[in-house]
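dude i think i finally got it to work??
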Amino acid sequence: MPIAELDALDRRILNELQANGRITNQELSERVGLSPSPCLRRLKQLEGDGVITSYVALVDPAKVGLSVTAFVRVRLDQQDDRHLAIFEAAVTKFPEIMECYLMTGDADYQLRILVESLNAFEDFLRHKLTRIQGVSQVTTSFALRPVVYKTTLPVLT
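look at this
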């Protein structure tokens, strides 16, 4: 469902759920100004249309020992469909990779990687990432600290 088809109530529902995914339907309906049954119908419609794709718990990486965030730019030696598919299939198997984007510019891919230490990052780099067929160049920057980190999409009402 394109954003243009979402009305103000749908957007309020999305904003409330992004702030608290564990909210009850009763609480949600009160906050958005609907009775519980129509609120639940709209929620089920948003789920059915794929607007809401899942519900998750956000975990503090440092509290579970993942204190190193690396942003890695990867260049492939060839950018044809076969090499892109090989790379993309390989990176989906690595739990350290939190995000991977096909990019324009001087890198083919941008990755966000979470690991527990610089040694763990070196192991990941040497034994996983650079062993993917077609990887020709890897450039890494390490995050010192997050300044802005959002999980809430700007679905304005």
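Residues 3-48 form a domain with the Arc Repressor Mutant, subunit A fold (CATH 1.10.10.10).
im so relieved honestly
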